[in-house]
Amino acid sequence: MLIEKLRPQLTKLTIEEIFVSENIALKNYASFDNLYEYVFYLVNTFELDLLFNPYLQFFLEEIHLFEKRNNSNIRDFMDWFNTKGAQRSIVSPEGANAVQVMTIFKAKGLEFPVVICPFFDWKLELHKQISWVENAGSDLPAYFINMTKDIQSTSLNPVFNAEEAKFYLDQLNLLYVAFTRPEVALFISANPKVSPSPASLWLNGFFKSQNWNALASGAVYNGEFEMPELEQKKMAPGFVIENDFPKLGRPQMSFKSAENWNVDELDEKRLFGSKVHLILSRIKTAADLKIELDRCLHKGLIEDSDVDLIQSEIEKLFQDSKFAAYFSANAMNEKVIINTSGKKFIPDKLIFNSDEVIVVDFKTGQQSPKHIEQVLEYVGLLKDMGNSAVRGEIYYTENGEVISI
Q1: Is the peptide bond before 196 cis (omega within 30 degrees of 0)?
Q2: What 3-state class would DSSP assign to 145?
Q3: The whole model's pTM is what?
Q4: Would you list the domain boundaries of the chain?
Q5: 402 phi and psi, to 5 degrees?
Q6: Is 262 exposed, middle or buried (0-12, 13-18, 19+ CB in 10 A)?
Q7: Are the beta carbons of 74 and 42 closer than 8 angstroms?
Q8: What is the pLDDT of residues 177-228, one digit of tens each?
């Protein structure tokens, strides 16, 4: 592996000197379509083992999600990574043969065969608690105050005692949650000399009062640790995915609903129609067209070669007065409607006029009875929502034909 070979030089030479010594000439970031491709290129250049490195896989996934939600700008990604991304961690899948590390709060309601509770000697610091005190009839009717011991000798002593009781009750509840998670065995570690802490206040005294077995180290234990026979889950055999596609093996994207996918229909014409549909779903007026094209290009949703073609196609559609009328101030794009069974429906446009509601769906290709059934379903849902006058229209973008329903 190249990175292992270079490791001894990392503290002696600059990155530029190492690259020169190894005849490594990295491509410029600008020559890649997005950040994900650039990082993937670096992974291959430095011969990193992506297949068996879950941390590297997770990092690439984070890059993909960042680009999906934001953009492909490397500076924006570095800002996000330094403030939030570096704190992200891999979540072990349920049932994996691995130790799960989590807080007591996250463990609430869960069970595990064995639970290890380390560091049960955190300091119980009531002075960090802040209480809201009401003082009606004075110049300052209410205020926040830190619960320090000095308050005990003031008129706020009852407030201090109440807050202290609540604080210690919260800590006991934490212990209860932690100690009731295991099914077979519980291990606890703490320094009882740290005070005040859960170990010094409660655990140490309890363990000393019990007639339990003691070890030379000072630890105590009770019972026999016998793990039951756990059902072994059969794991599917691993396999290696190989690809020989351009752009890192990623297939071209389809923006159609998953319910309408048909692998036999993913030709260039239909893919282009899907991209036109994507842009139409994002614009409210013709004036928004250029802005949304730039935005989708920046996010990697369309290619640079698509921009002029999509713009020309949509501008041609707006020359039809019928089509242009759909983009009025009363129109709403792709709003989710949920029926009584919880199923989601997303019509392309809803136009709320003073006397009626119009449901509009844009279609490409040939007419189909399914198109009419789909719009009729939208119309029925809107009527169920209390709209008495509802009608639908299907607009075929290739020939400008309109079907009223």
Answers
A1: yes
A2: strand
A3: 0.39
A4: 2-87, 104-221, 252-308, 320-405
A5: -120, 130
A6: exposed
A7: no
A8: 999 999 989 999 998 888 888 888 888 888 888 888 878 777 888 887 776 6
